[in-house]
Amino acid sequence: MAEPHPHAYRPDPDGVHPPLRHAAYRSNELRAPRQPLVIAPATLVELHGPVYGEGRVAAGDADLTRQHDGDPLGERIVVAGRVLDGDGRPLPNTLIEVWQANAAGRYSHAVDRHPAPLDPNFSGAGRCLTDAEGRYRFTTIKPGAYPWANGDNAWRPAHIHFSLFGRAFAHRLVTQMYFPGDPLLELDPIFNSVPDPAARRRLVSRFDLETTEPERALGYRFDIVLRSRAATPVED
Amino acid sequence: MPVSTPSQTIGPFFAVGLGGSSHGEIASRESADAVEIAGVVRDGAGQPVPDALVELSQAEGCARAATSPDGSFSFVTVKPAPVPGLDGVVQAPHIAVSVFARGLLSRLATRVYFPDEPEANAVDPLLGELDDSARLVARPTGDGLRFDINLQGERETVFLDV
Lengths: 236, 162
Fold this sequence. Notes:
The complex is a heterodimer of chains A (236) and B (162).
Chain A: E1 38-39, H1 44-48, E2 76-85, E3 95-100, E4 125-129, E5 135-141, E6 146-147, E7 155-156, E8 159-164, E9 173-178, H2 197-201, E10 206-207, E11 218-221, E12 224-226
Parallel strand pairs in A: 2-11, 2-12
Antiparallel strand pairs in A: 2-5, 3-4, 3-8, 6-7, 8-9, 10-11
Chain B: H1 15-18, E1 23-25, E2 34-42, E3 52-58, E4 61-66, E5 72-78, E6 83-84, E7 90-91, E8 94-101, E9 108-113, H2 118-122, E10 139-141, E11 144-146, E12 149-150, E13 160-161
Parallel strand pairs in B: 1-5, 2-11, 2-12
Antiparallel strand pairs in B: 2-5, 3-4, 3-8, 6-7, 8-9, 10-11
């Protein structure tokens, strides 16, 4: 009896997720809990209850380049992939929300003081539901890198934030997608907070000619895997 | 088999994509059994955290709220029914809570229990394991319930491995 309550979802292997405390990320210092997490006995509501997202997606929400009268500045891209569980099964009809900086590395947010231009034709937010095969597809602008207050000359690599609900409370995931070949990746304490190098690489999208739209947009693939159900006597 | 995608911080600008309202509703204020749950997210220095996202999840629905500059958030919901665990053991009425913020690399999970359920709380399998189970029970105030979230410090909230 190692654990008083078995997990409803398989725990992820060590090194897949960042530790609670990661000294190289300065704002973690006063915010990360100091006490060990307590294993909680899952409920049927956590497995089968409602998840956020139903009715929150409108047509066009997945195209971040057509939310204003004009075209946003920057390199138009397509970001597409699948959402799967750890057994390789697609997760259909699950909400994905994304947000990002514009091509100049500036967020459309009052707190962002980076002296780079705002783009009146780019808000930087999108959402969609995965289809029956777990697929999603966003059209957007490649975000710019930007400096941040984490020490001298600290810059975030270009990234797109992803938020997913999956099917159950244990699925909830907020992460960031990066771009291949970015020289800032090896310097970034947030990216490098993931201990396992193979897990870290899964946060980097892959350039994909098949996803690329001729004469229009480069394509990047980013598949997302959420946890799998542990073996339990409770059936769906 | 594929392995899970790693978590990364929500960062300071999530309101761009997820909305910035500091109030979330699972039930309407007009419903007969509506209850307001309000609180403040604080860091290890006792300072309010103005860029956290708090989410509630229960059988009746889900809602989220981004903290205000003073760290505060509020929800209107209803008290859920007791719910069975996977082992069949009934758990006291509670709401599952997720907390995200700049500085947190992963989602933090916790629960809010209800102060008017002393008998159910006394036999709840999770509360029974805690040295100070009162930390997960909301406090009654004049017009609702109070549930502060302390990321660190002497009154650190009990965070859960789910």
